[in-house]
Amino acid sequence: MSENKDPQKFVYDFTEGNKDLKDLLGGKGANLAEMTNLGLPVPPGFTITTEACKVYLESGQAPKALRDEVSAHLAALEERMGKKLGQADDPLLVSVRSGAKFSMPGMMDTVLNIGLSDASVAGLATQSGDERFAWDSYRRLIQMFGKTVLGVDGDLFEEALEDAKAAKKVTVDTDLAAADLKKLVKQFKKIVQDQAGREFPQDAREQMDLAINAVFDSWNTDRAKLYRRQERIPGDLGTAVNVCSMVFGNLGPDSGTGVAFTRDPASGHQGVYGDYLQNAQGEDVVAGIRNTVPLADLESIDKKSYDQLMGIMETLENHYKDLCDIEFTIERGQLWMLQTRVGKRTAGAAFRIATQLVDQGLIDEAEALQRVNGAQLAQLMFPRFDDEAKTELLGRGIAASPGAAVGKAVFDSYTAIKWSRSGEKVILIRRETNPDDLEGMIAAEGILTSRGGKTSHAAVVARGMGKTCVCGAEDLEVDTKRRRMTVGGKVIEEGDLVSIDGSTGKVYLGEVPVVPSPVVEYFEGRMHAGADDADELVAAVHRIMAYADRVRRLRVRANADNAEDALRARRFGAQGIGLCRTEHMFLGERREMVEKLILADTDDERESALAALLPLQKADFIELFESMDGLPVTVRLLDPPLHEFLPDITELSVRVALAESRKDANENDLRLLQAVHKLHEQNPMLGLRGVRLGLVIPGLFAMQVRAIAEAAAHRKNAKGDPRAEIMIPLVGTVQELEIVREEADQVIAEVQAATGTDLKLTIGTMIELPRAALTAAQIAEAAQFFSFGTNDLTQTVWGFSRDDVEASFFTAYLEKGIFGVSPFETIDKDGVGSLVRSAAEAGRATRPDLKLGVCGEHGGDPESVHFFHEVGLDYVSCSPFRIPVARLEAGRAAAGARASDSR
């Protein structure tokens, strides 16, 4: 946090802050201060800090000093504006807006027009010369205040507004006259009285104080907490509150409000992007309740304001060196800036913009790498609709957030959540979304609205979540009460399949087939940069990936069990195999061979089973070493829970019982059932598996080591370069490893002598048990490498069964904030991570040249990759399709560390 922070100061004027004080002033307040410092036209105001919010949330009341500080800043604002809050003849009106450190669009509360009352509304009408405007502003205040501050159901106000429009036979609220709005104000006040049990407050200062507290409270609403969990925003930051003098976009056709982007947030292309709405207040645009006009139309509506706005947008983009998202209001030809922030963007836009800014000289390659992330790259690897497919076009809206989404039409969030939980893929269809729809938006494959534009709530939230979204499809008539959508005489009922293309804005009936993403085709070597839009994206990805590969220290390997996966991984940039799971080689027809080995009663039976398996294993490894020639291949010896290779005890018991009842019992089944009962385990994941199986079944690991060594010798004699690494699983004590290694060294020596080759095979172990991590210094005496099996390590550290807990109680743990994210998805740095760190340090203290890697699924998780870089691992290993993500994040981790060191 900046040195400017004064722990005793809870309120800052816009002239006092700057963009680096986001922790204290929130993003909105810090950027309002920054624009004020730049000399841009910002309405005067002040910001109440996040520290005040934290005190309020902890104690249930605002800090004692806050009221006096607010009074002092309000007095200064009144003096500057030449009017007082709520005075009858010429009232000062203010907005009270939330503003957390991280953007949370629509999740927290805002109240406009504070200071209006029965007494001051007439003064506003006189001062503005527009009676309709004054009463429209008053009804907006009561509506927003009633819903936000007093907890009145917002639908009651909306229904009254719709009834007023119906009575007047108009469709938009701007067609209501002053007399209509007066009646509406009276109705709104009655709704407040009936629902809140109190009158709408007439004292302006009471309005402001209650609104400030309501904004503080909105930090912990269900929708805000859900959004923070979704976006991984810490829950202890609190929100700032911005009190800003009102400027009015609803003063007639020479007034209006809009949202602008310095570049297209959907594609990244440069140009004039945004929405404008004449005779409206700011919330009308982002709420999507009236369809806007493109920002470019402002040039013909108000050329002076348009030119000034274009100049300010260029200033802000050059100052922030990034895409800026801007909110503005025009009051009778006067342009005012209400907010700016670094704008949310789609994954494709992020890569394009990063490289564009490098070409413009605004940022360097290292900064460009920090402007993108692995989650965005993963989005770009999703399939897209097949352009050649036969389709039935329903309509077209605004391409708000790209992607190809197919699902059953649903018309409310509750149904979206319910159907999604039962395995259905759904498209949430609404006239427009609001913050209450957040859970449904998360559950849906995509979002479709008939109103709103690229700056509507649906568009902004969907882009932030990487969710496909089409907005403003005006031809679609959405009837949420009857749960249907009509277009051109065609009716789409709830449950009908629809497909939406967030890159083109097209909406189709039925399921449209998908084809691979151009980014995947690029990684597969089937596409190169060219001139069209897809190739432009590929070129941007290529440039950033090339830089990430140059600067990263972590190498990236693949989890692959066969030659096909290994070759795909190599095309995706894998630098070897970090985990070949040999148990996957024994599925299908070979399963019975392993069953015979496990159930063998005599040495002859066991040796016969091993002899049958050896050539099959050798052939597997020959293919694998050929596909990864010149790169390391870590082969994990057999590590299945034993039950995976034995008949199901229940099925076998039933079969034997039925046979006995018919008096034709099979002798082999009886023998098999007896053996299965003997070997049956209550918790197979913690039973006879891994190194334990190798020690209990003589010759098992020796057979596998021989197969690896003979395959390596075969490849070497064929002028190849096999680099095999043998990994012993589930070691908990160095003695286990020593016994297996002694046997393995003997087998390798025999193969070398028989084949006349010099094999450079290394032997190491997985660190996947807490005891192994705690005794890593001892284990390193017998191991040439460690590979952290973070899946099992997470399971054993937490005492979780990874096969059961995610379905049983993880949802509750996430909702209650016990987890920010599943520890099987992102590594638990404090628990599991501390064992990884200490084991790495202890292992290298014993053996300085000890190679360290990770082969659990955390190896492809962006946040976890940064942790593995920090603790000094040599490589991460992950599934083939996550390799590009791991490469990118390894580069970001290295570049970020260099930037920190240089500071």
UniProtKB/TrEMBL annotation:
Entry-linked InterPro entries: ATP_grasp_subdomain_1, PEP-util_enz_mobile_dom, PEP_util_AS, PEP_util_C, Phosphohistidine_dom_sf, PPDK_AMP/ATP-bd, Pyruvate_phosphate_dikinase, Pyrv/PenolPyrv_kinase-like_dom
GO molecular function: ATP binding; kinase activity; metal ion binding; pyruvate, phosphate dikinase activity
Top EC class of this enzyme: transferase
Signal sequence range: none
Active-site positions on this chain: 457, 855
Enzyme Commission no: 2.7.9.1
Record carries keyword Transcription regulation: no
CC cofactor: Mg(2+)
Domain called Pyruvate phosphate dikinase AMP/ATP-binding: residue spans: 59-291, 298-348
Keyword list, A-Z: ATP-binding, Kinase, Magnesium, Metal-binding, Nucleotide-binding, Pyruvate, Transferase
Catalytic activity, reaction form: pyruvate + phosphate + ATP = phosphoenolpyruvate + AMP + diphosphate + H(+)
Domain of life: Bacteria
Database matches in SUPFAM superfamilies: Glutathione synthetase ATP-binding domain-like, Phosphoenolpyruvate/pyruvate domain, Phosphohistidine domain
Annotated Gene3D superfamilies: 1.20.80.30, ATP-grasp fold, A domain, ATP-grasp fold, B domain, Phosphoenolpyruvate-binding domains, Phosphohistidine domain, Pyruvate Phosphate Dikinase, domain 2
Chain residues that bind substrate: 581, 636, 768, 789-792
Binding site for Mg(2+): 768, 792
Domain annotation PEP-utilising enzyme mobile: ranges: 424-505
Keyword Cell membrane among record annotations: no
Residues in PEP-utilising enzyme C-terminal domain copies: 539-890
Record-linked PANTHER family: PHOSPHOENOLPYRUVATE DIKINASE-RELATED (PTHR22931), PYRUVATE, PHOSPHATE DIKINASE 1, CHLOROPLASTIC (PTHR22931:SF9)
Entry's family note: Belongs to the PEP-utilizing enzyme family.
Protein name: Pyruvate, phosphate dikinase
Species name: Kitasatospora albolonga
Lineage of the organism: Bacteria, Bacillati, Actinomycetota, Actinomycetes, Kitasatosporales
